[in-house]
Amino acid sequence: MLSYSEARQKVIEVAGAIRRPMRRETIEIEDAFNRTVAAEVYSDRDYPPFDRSVRDGFAVRSSDAASAGARLECIGELRAGGKFDGVVGPGECVEIMTGAGVPQGADAVVMVEYTKREGRTITLDRAAKSGEHIVRRGSEAGEGSLLIPTRARLGYAEIALAAQAGATLLEVFQRPSLAILSTGDEVVEARKMPGPLEVRNSNGISVQILAGTAGAKPVQLGNAPDQIGAIRSGIERGLNEDILVLSGGVSMGKYDLVEQALADLGAVFHYTGVEIRPGRPAVFATCRDKLVFGLPGNPVSTMVTFELFVLPAIDVFSGAVPRPLPIFKARLDTPVREKGALTHFLPSRVEWTGREAHVAQLRWQGSGDVVALATANCFLVVGPDRLEMELGEMADVIPRRGAI
Ligand code: AMP
Ligand code: MG
Fold this sequence. Notes:
Blueprint: H1 4-17, E1 24-28, E2 41-42, E3 52-53, E4 57-60, E5 71-78, E6 92-96, E7 108-111, E8 115-118, E9 121-124, E10 134-135, E11 146-148, H2 156-164, E12 169-173, E13 177-183, E14 187-188, E15 199-200, H3 203-214, E16 217-224, H4 228-238, E17 243-247, H5 258-264, E18 268-271, E19 276-277, E20 283-287, E21 290-295, H6 299-317, E22 328-332, E23 336-337, E24 343-353, E25 356-361, H7 370-375, E26 378-382, E27 388-389, E28 394-399
Bound molecules: adenosine monophosphate and magnesium ion (MG).
């Protein structure tokens, strides 16, 4: 059986080897959050486009300000966006605001806080060095330089950079579509009243949200009962999309029929179990050149296995570089006592007290316990080599997406 990192690697390999056209579309920057760049963005001009003052103060010749106490004559004022036609000569300065272009002749800015003014005479309380508080034209990006490479995921900073370069229309890859099919005789739609032995479908919505925030376009297929024909036809519908995610029906029970239905349709299995808890029965297959994930139906298992295995597939199919798992270290506030040579993902809370992250495992009733997961903001990751750990030891943690 594969470890979780081997299984992730397998997903990335298989998804990368599938031949499918990477379709592009052009969209407005307002709609570009989380999308993947298909055509790189270049700087349309030098940035900054002029030598820019980054302080309010006085533009001076540094040779006039080699030591504190220099007295200069103020010959004008420059506001952001303003133009100054003259040249700053020896013994002269120009009052300047943040964001204004440094006038000819000046090569330093002295902050207003370090000056005294009497009429047109400005006394500098400090010396100034050449270039001080000036960002030179083109020093952030030269005209024509690459700002955003292809395959980059567009976050707010990348989108701000595109706006700076006037790239208000962006060419991005189309989002992969992801079909969601839950299975189970006992599963009813969340808007319906369940019978005493039924449960509401929470996986449908959690997978939809996870898929959407990861960068896929979710397509909701509802729930199939535990009947081979119903599951098969649900899968066939799901194979119209790029990725199919099923929940439930992959364990060893008599009515866990997802693997059988996939096999009937000619699926090739890449793994049918991963050394993790929760989520051990997770299945990954390809069928008719589509990716199929069979996630265990217990809601915490579904969410953990989505994060671990489906997310990298969405990255690859989005044209993006697969995101690494953001593992960090935190000091244990509760001891760890786990069993089973598996990697455990335990709902936990991390808090930053002082300069250190502290993590405490939450009480939970196992992989069906959404109450515990909703209280958790992270997972404590306990590997098979360290199943027992003491209070105060450093442990691995991954954030719960969106909770930190
Ligand atoms: P399974 O993986 O089909 O054996 O299901 C394991 C557990 O998860 C059972 O207790 C199911 O009732 C529960 N479960 C399965 N599918 C869902 C779902 N869509 N929403 C909420 N719970 C589910
Ligand atoms: Mg089931």
